[in-house]
Amino acid sequence: MWNQSGKRVVGADVARVGEWIKRFLDKPGSVDLAPFQRIVAEAGELEGEVTRRADLRPAAVDPDWVGSADFCAVMREAARRALGQRPYDVQLVGMLAMLEGHVVQMATGEGKTLVGALTAAGFALRGARVHAVSVNDYLARRDAEWMGPLYETLGLTAGWIAETSTSEERGAAYACDVTYGAVSELGFDVLRDRLCTDPAELVVPAPEVALVDEADSVLVDEARVPLVLAGTADPGTALPEMAALVRRLSRGYHYTIDEEGRSVFLTPKGTDTVEKALGVDLYEHPGVVTQVNLALHAHALLTRDVDYIVRDGRVHLINTSRGRVAVLQRWPDGLQAAVEAKEHLPASETGEILDSLTVQSLIRRYPQVCGMTGTAIAVAEQLREFYDLRVAVIPPNRPCVRVDEPDRIFATLEDKERALLEEIETRHATGQPILVGTLDVAESERLAEALEAGGLSAAVLNAKNDAEEAQIIAKAGRRGAITVSTQMAGRGTDIRLGAGDPDEEQEVAALGGLYVIGTGRHESSRLDDQLRGRAGRQGDPGGSVFFVSGEDTLLTAYAPDQSLPAAGRDGVVRAADAAGLVAHAQRVAEGVNLEIHRNTWRYTRLQERQRAEVLERRDRVLHGDTGARALEQACPERYRELCETAGEETVERAARQIVLYHLDRCWTEHLGFLADLREGIHLRALGRLNPLDEFNREAVPAYRAMLDEVERRSKETFEKADVTRDLAEQGLKRPTATWTYLVQDNPFGSEWDRVLKRVAGALKRRKR
Ligand SMILES: Nc1ncnc2c1ncn2[C@@H]1O[C@H](COP(=O)(O)OP(=O)(O)OP(=O)(O)O)[C@@H](O)[C@H]1O
Q1: Model-wide pTM > 0.80
Q2: Is the complex ipTM higher than 0.95?
Q3: Residue to substitute in 47, 108, 114 for testing ligand 1 pocket (most ligand atoms within 8 angstroms of CB)
Q4: Which residue's CA lies nearest to atom 24 of ligand 1?
């Protein structure tokens, strides 16, 4: 990974050399661009001739034409005519790399929206249906509308879906050549289709091409997030008395928290206090232990304004890598109800999980995947491991001349914060616009207050006010602006120097452009790079620096046994190996997250295979007469008899309904079984058995048994049902209301890890 810290770029030439070295270092994971560059150079020669063509799209598109020099020249001309933007050579190179099925890395402000649209158009011209996977509804709509004229010029159609879209609107959007939609919406539609009993109700067409925006965030950071379809909603279990009880406990005395802040354990003293308060022996009441643990997790490990905010009487989770409210997300395992109880709120609804699908599995359904992002190289190995994708690093249109300063490292948080305020004050006095990236909402508010107290006013952009985002961002590049923001990995954050005013732009450029200050290194170097990338877009001048302290969570959690070299009197740590320690902590954090990803994937892989097989069966039943043939074979007498009285068509329709009902019902039960199995699998690990092997050993026969059960129940129903009457009234009642949500990544590591720690903690206690 190219380490930004310590890199000083002083001019365009150095930047070019830097790019070359970067390409060399990145070689193992990145795609060779030379063939694409040759095609684009050839396209340049065709430009004059193509501009004279009246109709750009050839009468019949030969799939091989897509990707040729003539095709590139046509796409360039189409963008110029439709949008008034002539794609740069690097944008065409990016398009060709995506058409080959790669993930392209292009820096902030390089025009990825246009590259994505050109690529989508290319796939569509080849005759494929494209789903442009966005990160939110706003961007899905914005990009579809913004790029609409380009598609039109090429004789193609584009549509978008959002949370509020009706089923007709969805149907119309999916009928387009290119459909833009947030990853969650695309997934929810797939899940909802899962319950259809009439082929006419299906909304999502067969997956063909997924073009993923912010590919690292969707394909890696959010890959583990399960999208859930639930039915028959019930209120969750509220635990106000547990919340009240744990509120009285003190850290260190009643409970301890592990170094990474992922687990919390009751001390023997804490166990006594809880047992006395509840009047039960915890060891004999595992259900109560779970409730206490959930309440304790909510109390001690989840912090308001860091992990979530409370707005309009509800808990809203914060997506820490985006610094925004994670719409529709919930925590798993009753943790949601525990946090609601902690905040004195009524428990929100839960429901029986009818089906679920991880983002990774959703994307892997598509035979062709490509993507784009500002930071892909750092996750090149994961993209290859989990999706078999390669990364193409596209050079910027104009070399980046941003100055990335080495980290400023301090012994204590206090020293760091003092120096940070001084730096902001000094820079601000020159008029240079400053963007301060904080690690969480609480910090952004604290900093804005401290600045205010010092007579400086800052615009604050965080998960609490993301609706005003565009306006705040529009002003962030103005002379003298101070903007304090939580992580803004989200697209659409284009900070223009001087906010579009040419005179002010010159003035701000002369002051050094936008200066980005990070108040701490993130757990992932990609997030650091994304923050830096806000400055120096399209060859603008700019600078960036991170302030780090030995008391930052990154260091205390991931390098707890190592301490920073001694600081000078001013609190600054100058020794060269300090930067190495910070980088080490970040690598450990990245390693831990990768391991969690791998572990989750290992467990979900089998479930996903089973799911795919069940869906295949379901499809055969839904679209054909497989259900009827199976029942005819299982109960020939009954089948013949019913055909005679009710007619073959009615019997076939009823058979379809019966088999689909039991298949869906049994799958839901099987999912519940797998969840319980996984929850309990830790006990095998204590018996020195490999939990994953054990999980698979049980999950496979359970799946076969489930299929037999579908057959048995279908036969039983068929034997006694009155096929001429409504089957729902005869017990085949489907959930009347379904709802969808995402399960927020377990903040405490893998389920297994957490439960194992809990059990080990309990055993340790008992041994004393
Ligand atoms: N070929 C072009 N000619 C002129 N302007 C362009 C061209 N391509 C893109 N732009 C403009 O550059 C700006 C940035 O584009 P866009 O928002 O797509 O960048 P991005 O790479 O997606 O950045 P981010 O990572 O912040 O989302 C937009 O205002 C867009 O109109």
Answers
A1: no
A2: yes
A3: 114
A4: 108
